[in-house]
Structures are given as C-alpha cells and as structure tokens.
Design goal:
There is one protein chain. The chain is of the alpha+beta class. It folds into three domains: about 230 residues, Histidine kinase-like ATPase, C-terminal domain (Heat Shock Protein 90, 2-Layer Sandwich); about 140 residues, 2-Layer Sandwich (Ribosomal Protein S5, domain 2), CATH 3.30.230; about 140 residues, Heat shock protein 90, C-terminal domain (Four Helix Bundle (Hemerythrin (Met), subunit A), Up-down Bundle). About 40% of the residues lie in helices and about 20% in strands. The protein has 20 helices and 23 strands. A nine-stranded mixed sheet has the order 1-6-5-4-7-3-2-8-9, covered by helices on one side. Helix 9 crosses helix 10. Bound molecules: adenosine-5'-diphosphate. Adenosine-5'-diphosphate binds next to helix 2 and helix 3.
C-alpha cells in the first residue's frame, strides 16, 4: 500500500496557518463543526438511501460516536454517514474549495489586528480546519457508501497531507484528533474528559437529529459479598463504562418558542448556516389550516462572501415531518431573500419528494408565497420598531433586497417601503421613500433621483443644479442594481420617479414655468445659430444641442432622452461580457446665462466660421462628460486641447 504526500494549495496553507495561530478564544467550537459535518454526512446517507436502498440497511442506526483515549490524548469522532472516496477527500479536505477564500485572505492581509482577524475567520467559518486549533495532527479514515475501499488522510497542518488506501469495517468517517496539551488559559481544555465533551455537545449540538454517544465511566459500589456471619465485606467500588447519548435530539422548531433560549437558537442557526456569529434576528412561524408547516428563519448579522456570486449557495432546509429532505431548497424563497437562512418543516409533503417534484409542487408554491410575505412583513416591522437593527441589516443585504423590485412585481410595493437611499437631504443618513415624500416641497410633483457610479460623481453632477436651487431633494442611486430598479419602478405613493439626468426639466408653479418658457424662446433666438453649428460639429456623439433649464452654475451638461438609458447603465452594460451596444447619442444642454456660453456666442456672431469653435465644441463635450463622471472617448485629444488653452492664457 503506497502513501502519497500532497501539498495543500497555497490558499489552504495560508488559511491553515491563520487558523492554527489565530487567537480565536472559543476553541471548543471545533467539536460543533465536526459534529455538524458528521450530521450532514448522515443526512446525505439517509437521503441517498431513499433512492438506493442498498446504501443503508434497516437495522443500521445512524449515529455519531465520540471515543477518547486519555493516555494517548486522542479524541475520535465517528459517524456512519455517507463517507468520502479518495477524490472527494482530496477535493473536500485537501483544499478549501469554499467560495470567498481569496476574498477572505485579502481581507486578512489588510487587517493586522488579531481581534479583527479572529472575527473575520469567524465570519468565514473554517469548518473542518478549526480542529487544528486544538490538535496538532489529524487522521481521517473514511469509506464512501457503496464502496469497499477506504481512504486514510493525515496531516499536521504544516503544508502537506498524506493519503493512502486502507480498510474500514463499515461505511462512514472517523476523525482522530491528536490533541494539543491542555492549556486552559488558551481555551484548550481536556477534550478527552467525558464531562467536558458532554457540556460542549449540550451547548452547541443538542438539537442534532442523530444521537451523539460517548462512554461514561461510572463508579459503582462493590457487589455485596457477605461474610459467614452475614455481614457485608467492604470492597473497592468498581468502574464500569456505559454508553450514553449526550444530546436531546429534539428539533428546536418543535419546542415552544418561550422555552427556547436565545443561545439555543443561535447554536441551531450556526449549525445549519455554518456561520460563526449569532444571527441578527429570527422569525418563528407556524401555519395551520389547509397546509400545515412550521418555519424557523434567521437573518444573519453579516453578509456571506458569496452573496453576489453568480451561483450563491442558498436555500432553506426542507424537512418533512422532521426528516431532512433537501439541504438547500431554493424554491421556498425568492432569490432576493437568499440571505435568509433557516428551515421549513412540512406535514403535508411526501417523504420521498425529489428536487424535481419540489419545483412543481403546489404546496411548495403556496409556502413560498406565504413565507415571502411573512419575511417582508417582519422586515417592515423591524424597520419601524427596531430601526437601528434594520439599518444594520440594510447595510449588509440592502442591495439584494433591491433586486426584488424588478424580480417580483407582486411584492414591489412592499419592497419599495423597505428601501433606503442616499440623498441630497442628508450626507450621512440614508433616507427611505416615505421620508422623501414627507419632505417634498410645495409644487414639487415628482421624486427625483440620479444614478451614477459613485456618490462623489453623483453629488457633484451639474444635473442637480436647478433642483438644488429650488431646494428639491434628489436621491443618489449608486448601486448597479439601482439602474435595474428604476427600469421597473415608476412611482411611489402616487408620485412618479424621475431622473434629473433625463428629459426636459420644468420646475416650479405654473406661472414660473410659463415665465421660463418665454425666456427660453427669447434666448433661442439669440443662440439658435450657435446651437446648429455646435450640433454639426458634434454630430457623431450628440443628437441635439439645446438650451438648459437645469443648469445654474455649469456651462454645459449632457442629458439622455426621457426614455433613454443613463451613461451609468450604458457603462454597466458594456462591462457585461458580450454587450455590444451602439453609441447612445445624447443631448448637449447649454446654460445661456453662463459667461462662457455668452462669450462663445459673441465670438460666433463675429465670425461664424472661426476655427476656434471646432475646438471649443470638443472641449465642451469633454467638460460635460467629466462633470457627470463619464469617461472621455479620447483623453489624449482632450488633453491636447486643454494644453493649448493653458498656453494661450499664459
Ligand atoms: P463545510 O462543512 O462548511 O462545507 P468543511 O471544511 O467543514 O466545510 O468540510 C468540507 C467538506 O468535507 C464538507 O462539505 C463535506 O463534503 C466533507 N466532509 C467533512 N466532514 C465529513 C464527514 N464526516 N463525512 C463526510 N464528508 C465530510
């Protein structure tokens, strides 16, 4: 039998190094991680046996066993779960395949402070590898259900691991930890002590659905032996070992919520989510009537690293009468609620329901509708009654919630009430739309917004000028998802949403509007020819040149048609692979009251074919692109013009 030595991938090695040297104080949670993995493996074996009966005989009980050898200082966690074949061991244990490892490493590199590092590792959760906090060597022996051969993996967490084929009597996995010396100050207790193990299991893994067993050594009085006179002979008490179950196995959602402590809920959440922090909030639901089920949902405190991945790992756990059917059931909630973790236990579904059946099932559809509404209602209440907590949630998951406004038209109204935006009203605090409505000025008819790449560019955009002059609030929409939001949401509370960067602007009372119109038609007479000339010069990129009613201090800006797309959306679409967009021509607006435009007009009137005009057309275009935060199509050409201008002024 050969032993192969493999090197861990660089990322895994780095992470291991951090785990081993991290100052994570709560080292006992390694046991929760290993028990959770064992419990998942047992779930999988039971699940696969539903379709292939040979994988689990009826008389085999699915269990987790903790074995200790105090003299050798080892603790072994056995399970008779699904096990792993050689390739699976390499893929699952030899590498940290988890999404987000790289991001984690980057974050860690930025954070020298040990507490912050421990917190980051906590957010990430290192599962199996957490065992290296308490062990300096780990041996894993595993045999996949359906296979005859077993695999032995061993590592001291030092950059390499070994693999060899071996034998194992039964299907399942045993993980032996060669424990570090007891060091109570650093959280390394005697993990070979029955009472220590019992306490840890009770605390972190009590609800695990399978029995977690260990041997308890008990002293029993010596058997009574009587002497000739019929008197008992005093004898030494005897030691016996007895296998006991450490966990109660009661599913937490079947208990009366009043009897369940916060910590117990937190432990359960950590068990199902593999998150190391406590949840921010929970929602316990119970439906009775035509369909009967319970749900226990959690809102995480922090966003997982893979939240925005193309294929994030999400979905609730689906149980049927307390039996786990699907680990990640994505059908139970829409994807814009993918940050919600938890379980649903149904009394009505068949036990052998398959993933395909779940997609079609009427009960599941009903549950999804109901759960979605309940979660959104819960969020609305939280926003009202525990606003600070809600804002924390918003910080982590707001962008995901916004996706719902276009993805789920049925809930659009509810969702709109949950959103927060940056706005010109307050540079620090975000605002919701109700707050905006309350602050609307008299005569203001629409909800104004501007989309853009960053807060800085949006805040400083010339498009805001007339609105600021009137004291009208403008929402700053700078998340990419905002562009999709404004494509599908047109109003809130009877007020239309309007981009300040699109279409024409008419502000103020009827009288003011009339006045502005008259003024504009006067100005058009003055600037008409100049505008035609500029239009000709910029024909490739500009579809119209007109006078602006939205500018007060800037000389020019570019605007889109009422229904055109914003430059920000255009940029985003171009970034997405394969988006081959034709150039969107926009409208160049001139501020007739600006000195620069007035002087340009003077120059043009004196000499309509002045070659300088050509350069100024390009300069004005570049100016307006930079002002809104867009890229210049030809920065070098623009710079040449500016350079020339600078020289002239000297
Ligand atoms: P996580 O559990 O968060 O996915 P881990 O590092 O704890 O990450 O485990 C990695 C993978 O190794 C698991 O997803 C599982 O596929 C496999 N694994 C771990 N422990 C066991 C076990 N006892 N039995 C079978 N597979 C296991």
């Amino acid at each position: 039998m050969t032993t192969e030595t493999h090197a861990f991938r660089a990322e895994t090695r780095q992470l291991l190094d951090i785990v081993i040297h991290s100052l994570y104080s709560n080292k006992e949670i390694f046991l929760r991680e290993l028990v959770s993995n064992a419990s998942d493996a047992l779930d999988r074996r039971r699940f696969e046996a539903l379709t292939d009966g040979s994988l689990l005989t009826e008389d085999e009980e699915l269990t987790i066993r903790l074995d200790v050898d105090p003299a050798a200082r080892t603790l072994t966690i056995h399970d008779n779960g699904i096990g792993m074949d050689r390739d699976e061991v390499v893929a699952n244990i030899g590498t940290i395949a988890k999404s987000g490892t790289r991001e984690l490493m980057e974050e860690l590199a930025k954070n020298p402070d040990s507490e912050a590092r421990a917190e980051l590792i906590g957010r990430f959760g290192v599962g199996f590898y957490s065992a290296f906090m308490v062990a300096d060597r780990i041996v894993l022996v595993t045999r996949r259900a359906g296979s005859e051969v077993a695999t032995r993996w061993e590592s001291s967490g030092d950059g390499t691991f070994t693999l060899e084929a071996t034998d194992r009597d039964a299907v399942g996995t045993s993980i032996t930890l060669h424990l570090k010396p007891v060091d109570a100050e650093n959280g390394i207790e005697d993990f070979t002590d029955f009472y220590v193990l019992r306490r840890i299991v009770k605390k972190h893994s009590d609800f695990v659905a399978y029995p977690i067993r260990a041997d308890e050594e008990k002293e029993v009085p010596a058997p009574e032996i009587l002497d000739d006179a019929g008197q008992p002979i005093p004898g030494e008490p005897q030691k016996v070992t007895e296998e006991v179950t450490l966990n109660s196995q009661v599913p937490i959602w079947t208990r009366n919520p009043d009897d369940v402590k916060d910590e117990e809920y937190a432990e359960f959440y950590q068990h199902i989510s593999h998150d190391w922090s406590a949840p921010l909030d929970r929602i316990a639901l119970r439906a009775e009537g035509r369909i009967e089920y319970r749900a226990l949902l959690f809102l995480p405190e922090r966003a997982p690293f893979d939240l925005y991945y193309r294929e994030p790992n999400w979905g609730l756990r689906l149980y049927v009468r307390r039996v786990l059917i699907l680990e990640n059931c994505e059908e139970l909630l829409p994807s814009y609620l993918r940050f919600v973790r938890g379980i649903v236990d149904s009394a009505d579904l068949p036990l052998n329901i398959s993933r395909e059946m779940v997609q079609q099932d009427r009960h599941i559809h009903q549950m999804r509708k109901w759960l979605t509404r309940k979660v959104l209602d819960h969020l609305a209440t939280m926003k009202k009654e525990e606003n600070e907590k809600y804002r924390q949630l918003w910080k982590e998951f707001g962008r995901v919630l916004k996706e719902g406004t276009s993805a789920d038209p049925d809930q659009q109204k509810r969702l709109m009430g949950l959103l927060y935006f940056a706005s010109s009203h307050d540079s620090e605090e975000l605002t919701d739309l109700d707050g905006y409505l309350e602050r609307m000025k008299e005569g203001q008819e629409e909800i104004y917004y501007l989309t853009g790449e960053s807060l800085t560019t949006v805040k400083n955009s010339p498009h805001l000028e007339a609105f600021q002059a009137k004291g009208y609030e403008v929402l700053y929409l700078t998340d990419p998802v905002d562009e999709i939001l404004v494509q599908s949401v047109f109003e809130y509370g009877d007020k239309k949403l309007k981009s300040v960067g699109k279409g024409e602007v008419e502000l103020g009372t009827e009288e003011e509007k009339k006045e502005a119109e008259m003024e504009l038609s006067e100005q058009s007479k003055t600037f008409g020819d100049l505008m035609t000339r500029l239009q000709k010069l910029l024909d490739d990129t500009v579809k119209e040149v007109r006078l602006s009613t939205r500018l007060t201090t800037s000389p020019v800006c570019l605007v889109a048609d009422e229904h055109g797309i914003s430059p920000n959306l255009e940029r985003l679409l171009r970034q997405t692979e394969g988006a081959d967009l034709p150039i969107q021509k926009r409208i160049l607006e001139l501020n007739p009251k600006h000195e620069l435009i007035e002087k340009l007009q003077g120059r043009f009137a004196a000499d309509p074919v002045d070659p300088l005009l050509e350069e100024y057309a390009q300069l004005l275009l570049g100016y307006s692109l930079l002002a809104e935060g867009s890229d210049l199509p030809d920065p070098a050409a623009y710079n040449r013009l500016v350079g020339k201008l600078m020289l002239q002024a000297l």
